[in-house]
Structures are given as C-alpha cells and as structure tokens.
C-alpha cells in the first residue's frame, strides 16, 4: 500500500494537541474496557499517538502500530514530549501476525482507519488478522466519522480555523468511495504556505460492518452512534463498532 501520510504526518496534529483526546471518548473506553476486563490493548492504526497516550492514561498496558513510518516518527516525538515510553511498531493491520506474536485483551482501529482499505478481500483479511491477535473474549473497537448523516452534509467543511492556520475539507463521493481533499493554509508572518493531501475512504456503514465482521468470525457486534452508547441510526454523527470474539 502507498503511505498517503508520508508528508501529511508532520502537519497532522494541527487538528489539536496530543493531550486533548480526553472527555467523552476517554470515558467511553474507561467504562467499556472495565466492563470486559480489558487490560492489554493494541492500537493498530496509532497515527501520531493520541489514542495510545489516552489509553495509557487509563492505566492500560498499551502498544501501537501503524503502516506509516512518518506517523510513527511523529508519535514517538509526541509521546516523548509527555513523558511516555510506549512500544510502537511499523506494520500493516492486514497482517498483524507478521509484527506481533502476542495477543491482547482489546484491539482498537480508530478515526476512520479501516476504510483506507478499498476491497472486500482486504477488509476481511484485516478484520481476521485483528481477531487472531485477540485473547479469548477479546474486544475489537472501530470508530469513524463517516455516517449516513455526515455523508449528507455540504461538501466543504472548515475543520480548523485559527489566527495563523486553517484546515478545510473538500469532499466528493460516489456510491462506494469518499475522497477528502485536505487543504492546509498557513497564514502568519512566520509561515505563509499551503498544502493539499488527498485521502480516499471506502464508504462503510452499519450494515457493511455487520457483514464484514461476521465474515471475519466475530460473534457479538454492537454499533453505537456516540460515546454515550446510544444506538446508531441515520441521525448519528459518529459510528462506533464494538465486536467480540
């Protein structure tokens, strides 16, 4: 696979600092993992490290992996800056067995990471790989911002707008794929430049996850529309999948 984050990784955290991934998302994981006695967790698309940091703050034993070497480089710096030393490895989440021999109580694949895969074969391969790295009764958690509701929103969205920086999403889609053109605009005396990064997602919604996870051998599948665990419906702003081995 092409590393689409080779350059974007170094500006990715303009979304917000690593310390800001708290609030309702952290409470969700704290309560869910306590209910299911999850103590060890793999974040298999850890990006720049926000979620491995968040999970480690809950007292969990955490490891991270990512396909992008650039993302891992930024994650190591971010974690060092907050005094965290968390094992990070480079790897493709379709083939976790090539990187990890150990198994985990929980695996997370967050922030619309799984839809980077575009074929049914690759999606099922990745979910089977995650399943095979889970302990008995282990949990898989997937999250994304792509929902029935969000797909109907206007195609241009300003997601960050500060005095010296703006990030704009320009979205286009067909029945199967959504392309997000990320426009980064730096407008200060110190930095006057712009960049565009294009990310293509396979559109996966609740019925798709039920089908794919069943193919991969998961038994129990719950899909929520927010971090308060309300059921997912067509008005939901988030899609959160919790699947059990």
From TrEMBL:
Domain (Methyltransferase): residue spans on this chain:
41-138
Which processes are annotated in GO (biological process)? methylation
Q: Which GO terms describe its molecular function?
A: methyltransferase activity
Name of this chain's protein: Methyltransferase domain-containing protein
Q: Which UniProt keywords apply?
A: Methyltransferase, Transferase
Q: Which Pfam families is this protein grouped with?
A: Methyltransf_25
Which species does this protein come from?
Answer: Enterococcus pallens ATCC BAA-351
